[in-house]
Structure formats: structure tokens, C-alpha cells
Write a structure and sequence with these properties.
4 copies of one chain form a homotetramer. By secondary structure, chain A is mostly helical. Chain A is 72% helix and 0% strand. Chain A is built from 9 helices and no strands. Chains in contact: A-B, C-D. Chain B binds a DNA duplex through helix 3. Chains A, B, C, D: Keywords: DNA-binding, Repressor. Chains A, B, C, D: This is TetR family transcriptional regulator.
Amino acid sequence: MKDKIMKESIDLFDSKGFSKTTIQDIVDNIGVTKGTFYYYFESKQELLRDIHLSFIENLLHQQEEIINDKNLNNKEKLYKLVYIIISEIKTSGKSARVFNREIRHLEKDHIDNVNSKRREFRLNFQKVIDEGIREGEFRNDLRSDIVTFAILGMVNRSYSWYNPDGEMSEDEIVNLYMELILNGLTK
Amino acid sequence: MKDKIMKESIDLFDSKGFSKTTIQDIVDNIGVTKGTFYYYFESKQELLRDIHLSFIENLLHQQEEIINDKNLNNKEKLYKLVYIIISEIKTSGKSARVFNREIRHLEKDHIDNVNSKRREFRLNFQKVIDEGIREGEFRNDLRSDIVTFAILGMVNRSYSWYNPDGEMSEDEIVNLYMELILNGLTK
Amino acid sequence: MKDKIMKESIDLFDSKGFSKTTIQDIVDNIGVTKGTFYYYFESKQELLRDIHLSFIENLLHQQEEIINDKNLNNKEKLYKLVYIIISEIKTSGKSARVFNREIRHLEKDHIDNVNSKRREFRLNFQKVIDEGIREGEFRNDLRSDIVTFAILGMVNRSYSWYNPDGEMSEDEIVNLYMELILNGLTK
Amino acid sequence: MKDKIMKESIDLFDSKGFSKTTIQDIVDNIGVTKGTFYYYFESKQELLRDIHLSFIENLLHQQEEIINDKNLNNKEKLYKLVYIIISEIKTSGKSARVFNREIRHLEKDHIDNVNSKRREFRLNFQKVIDEGIREGEFRNDLRSDIVTFAILGMVNRSYSWYNPDGEMSEDEIVNLYMELILNGLTK
DNA sequence: CATGAATGAGCATTCATTCAT
DNA sequence: TATGAATGAATGCTCATTCAT
């Protein structure tokens, strides 16, 4: 039931937004009553936090595997890090959109854990950049923190326009991003 | 008074978010009453739309000047297009954040004009990329529409972390972005 | 201007009802501003009272002429009394509807005069019935007060269905009413 | 609780009128909170519609029994049809007043069903008149639709002056009405 | 005469949350 | 586990009215 509620909530948060979605909406779509919701969640905030945590924790697990893979150089790691974001958008577009859009509606008491994991996700990214600079794979004249913000901004934002059922496959998207990131636009 | 209300609203939408900001909050901070608000705006939605329109129209005007400047090649134009976004974040960070975050709270009846102008803004960007490809300034093996989404995602997102009072100037940011966009990360 | 306001108000009260009609509606339709309204009327209540007074006073004047006409017997007077009501509905249907419908929205401070004139109107009617009974024109086994209520209920209510542009003329309506009132339905 | 709310609302709509009665008034008089009201009714409009429906449906049921009674001729039916209106005013005067006065406050989305039933009520009335004409009980030189409007106007309007605790019983009222309707005022 | 800005009290409605059963 | 009735605080919005100009 808890999963059912989360799944339905993601659907509704995606289509109507967090603040326009009522607990009533959620339970109506499942066919239960509000009491049931409050048996599984203490509050709407807790639900939103759980959705965020579940999403970011999944990403972190995938990240870890890549980062710890000794067979990959940093360019390859970077490729794979980008890949998991796009892949997640493809397979769980709704979750990805909720994750990216509704973060602001998480309030004080429920945001700490989420924020620290988002931060961790970003720093993992940056670590690969730093490592690549040290290894001579990447140029060393650009601040890695800003580069990380730049790449994440670019890639994450795909949730807003990328249509998995459209003409571009996830591979094509990732390849284009990597070309741009690694070699730039100049002819 | 209308301007005063808009200014105060932007402040509050930035700090508390659109849905958590009440009309009462807004007028209390100005020292007038709710009636006054509704004398100048028909609804909270209209206010949000006006904020969006005012922001995007300003950007469009700046874009036009750059695009029509015959003395600039496309690399230079691209540079300047990126610059106005960062510059706007620096001088009107609150507006920029509201513009980027609260778009989802604009509902059916008030979104049309805003959406078409946002689209126009993006297509102007793409036009420069296309032109640069045609002129041989940019490589021709990357889809310009996706490249545009990529660059805009990267640059726009700066609102979320760029602190104008911090150690990096807007020039430095833009230069870093342009290096990455034009030449890439590879050593 | 005062007349213009009253005329427009009657239109709006007729179509939207008193409580749903705002002062703004009224002045918008005339092309002036609210200040103008309050220059001519102290309040919405006063406006409503003036509309009522003007309507009932007009009826009372017509009544008087008939009642004082020494050439008419009481059947003829009754006929004419009914006639003026229908005639008023025909020529000033909107006023008649407002007069009959919105009386309840007249509050304490503005109702006295109106009520006493409505009462006078009814009692004038009853006087003719009484006189007719005394003169032997009408049967004497029916209470004249209730008969008056009955006739007035029947005739006044015409405002709700009588369409002056329809197939029945006012004469035909009045004749039918008088037949019913005087001779009844029995074959 | 729903019944309690309806009952209290009828009281208040009768004494203060629909538009002057607030939801707060209603719930205060019952000793619950506004939330409770909206648990049972979607809107003030829905409440008003339910009040109307409940009143008219009750009348329709009573009508049906009379109309289908094969032991009654049309004069007798007419008598009984008038009787139920007066009887309803006597036992449920408040409902009757609300029903007759506040119909105009029912708006578009909530009026359809009510209007069609009011119409049905009137047409049932007319059917008896028509039948009586065909059977030779009533004269055939008066339009039955107008006669119906006339009788209903006369009888319904009793809500505005008939005091059930006064000197006249409902039988006396109905008898007077029937005398007038059937035999007229002429001596 | 007329305007337009401002008021303030009020109102219907919403909705997350509680809790006895 | 789940329900359904009830809460209460909040919220966007309305509108008759005032008043300085």
C-alpha cells in the first residue's frame, strides 16, 4: 500500500504539482480513504521526502558502482554518470520531474537528509572531474566545482524536454552531451 | 503601487515560494490592504504572469539587439547571449529564480503569452547556433535544437547556486561556460 | 444621471438579481465611476428603495384616478385595477420584476415608506371589493381581504411568465383574468 | 447531520434570505464548524438546490397520488391539488417561503433538475384543467395554460401572508379559493 | 460633478490533519 | 488496517463605501 500511495502521488505531483495535489486526490485515485494515507505517512511532507529519498538513493547507488569501478578511466566514468541521469529520466520520467521540480516544497523538518544526499551526488560528480584533471584527462584551467554545476545543469534539465518515446534514443542524447562536454562546439 | 506590489511579491515568491506566499503577506509587507492588491491585479495568477512577462520581455529585448548586430560573428553573439542570462541573475537574482522556479504555478488562462515568449527566447538562441554552423564557426555534427537545450539548461541553472557577492565575477562565469561550450573539457 | 443610473440598475437587477449586481457593474455599463454613483445615491439600499418607490407611486396614482371615477361601477373599477398591473408588466416588465422579486433585499432603514405604499395599494384594491359587495355587485360570502390577496397573487405573478411580445395581448390576459375572477371556471 | 444542516438553513434562509445567510451562520447555529458543512455539501448552491429538490419532489409525489385517483372527478382533483399547496404552507411554511423566494439564487449548474420538476408540477396542474374541460366540468372558452398560471399564482402566493396560527384554517382558505376559482365573485 | 485610489470587513471554499470506532 | 466524520486555520477574492483631489 505504501508503494501504491507513493506511485500514485508521483503521478499526481507530476501532472498537477505538489501544492495542487491534495491527499484526497491521492486516495481517491487508489480507492482508499484519508485515514489509510495517514496510517502509512505522518504527513504530506513525509511523503514528499520519501519520494525524494527513494529517487536520490537509487541514483547514489548507481553512482557508487561506477566510481568504484577500477577498469574505467575518468572520461568513461563521466560518460556513465551522465548516462544514469538520462536513463533515469527515460525510465522514471515522472519521478525525475518531481525530484527536480518539487524540491522547494520540502520544508525544514524533512529536507536535511535529502539535501545532504543531493550534495553527495554532486560531489561524487565533481570527484570524477577532479580525478580526471589530476590524471591529465581533463584540462586543468577550469574550476571543477563550476564545471560540475554546469554539466549537472545541462543534463538534469533534460527532464523538461526529453521525450523517451521520441526520435532520439538515450544513447544519442548522452553521446551528444559528451561530445559537447568533452570537445566543445568549435569546428 | 503596481510596481511596489510586484517587487515585494518577487521578494516573497523567492524566499517562500509562490504557493506559500499569501496575498496578505504581500500587502502586509507594503503596508496596504488586500483591497489595494485587487485594485491593481485581478488575481494572484495575473500577478505571477506579469512577473514572468516582464522578465522574459526584458530578456527578449536584449537578445534582439545582439542578434541584429552585424558586427558580431556567431561565437561572439553566443557569448553575449550567455552573458545576458548571467548578468540578469546577478542584477535580478530574485526575479530570475522566480522566473525559473515558479513557472509551473502559472495556470492555463495565464500561461499562453509567457510560454510563447519563452519559446521565442530559446529559438533565438538556436538561430545563432544554426547560423554558426552554416558559417563554419561551429561543428555540424550536433543537432542544434538539443545543443540549445543543453546550453540553456547549463546557463539558466546558475540561478540556483551563483552568488553575485561571492568570489566569482559574472565575467569569469561566462568565460568558463564559453570555454566549456566552445572547446570542451578535454586537455 | 440619476435616472440613467436607476434605469441601468433596473436592467441589471432584473437580469442578475440585486445581490449579484455590484455598483461596479452599474457604473461600468454607464461609463462613469463609482464616485459618481455615490454622488447621487447614499447607498445601494437607497437606490433599491428609490426604484421601489418610483414604481409603486406610479401605480398608486393610476389607482387613484380609477377609484375616484364616479362613472364606473365596481366591476369596471376592478377591471381597470387589474389592467394597470398587466399594463405595467407589459411596458415596464423589468421594473415590475425587480419590484416583485427584490423587495426582500430592502432592509430596515429603507423599507418603511415602501411597505406602507404597497399596503395602501392592496387596501385600495380591497376597498373596491368591499364597495362592490355593499352595492350587491359581488357576492357577500367571501372575505374581501383574502379575495384581495388572491386576486393580487394571481395578477402580480404574471411578471414571471407573461411575454408582451408573445401571442397574447394585454387585453386578452385581463379579460381572461376577469372572467375567472367574476364568473369562475365552472361550465 | 445533513438533515440538521438543511433544516437550520431553511430557518435562516427564511428569516435572513439566502444571500445574507452565511455558512458561518448556519454552522454556528448547529454548533459545528464550516468543515463539517463542506463535508456534506459541495457548495452553498448545492445546499439550496437540495432544499428546492426536496420540497418540489415531495409536492410531486402528493400530486401523483391525486391525479391517479380514479374515484375523483376533476373538480375534486383540483380541490386536492390546491389543498396540498396550502397544507404545505401550513406545515412547512419556511420551506415554502424559501422555495418560492430564493429560486432566483439558484445558478446555472444547479438549476436544471429543479426547473424541470417545477415545470412538471405546473403541467400536472394544467392536465387536470384540460381533463376537466374535456369532461365538461369546466368551461372551454379559457386557455388552460393561462388559467393554470393564474391559479398557481393565486395559491402559491399564500406563503407571503397566510398565518397558520391565525384565525383561518387551511380548509377555510382552500374553500374560499375554490369558490372563487369555480364560481367567481359575481353575485 | 466626477475620479480613482484605497479600505476593511466579510465570505465561500480548501485541505492537511485528527481520532473514535 | 482502514474508515468516515469532524476540525480549524488559512486563503483568495469581493464589494459597498470613503475621500482627497
